[in-house]
Amino acid sequence: MLRASGIQWDLRKVDHYECYDELDWEIHWQKEGDSLAHYLVRIGEMTESIKIIQQALEGIPGGPYENLETRCFARERDLEWNDFEYRFISKKPSPTFELPKQELYVRVEAPKGELGIFLIGDQSGFPWRWKIRPPGFINLQILP
After folding, report:
1. Which uninterrupted H or E stretch holds 103?
2. CA-closest candidate to residue 110, choices 36, 25, 49
3. Most CB atoms closer than 10 Å: which of 31, 72, 93, 108?
4. Would you put residue 123 in left (φ > 0), alpha (ψ -120 to 50) or beta?
5. 45-66: per-residue pLDDT in tens?
């Protein structure tokens, strides 16, 4: 909505996260502020996404690779359809780490706006509090 209303705002340019600074891309924006401007911004974002993907693919170094997702399926077992091992054979275990005792807010660019994640750690494996602010309906909070 911001870019369709004439404001050139994109978190990838503002916060300089990941490798977006190393890629050549532009912020698409319109100044009219109507539905057509919003549509044109979205179409422009899709063409810029293609440019970003092409540049990222060109930057991947060549050489051999190893597929870390392979599993040994050669064992003969009689698995039931609802058996635990049948349903979760390709699932990875979740990483465990300790969240420090602090507050953290991270924002990333999402297709419909800014996705915000707020965490409060208490030096355990789980956050004491966490909240995810999706970009979809945040603009409707002023309506009755």
Report:
1. strand 103-110
2. 49
3. 108
4. left
5. 999 999 999 999 998 888 777 6
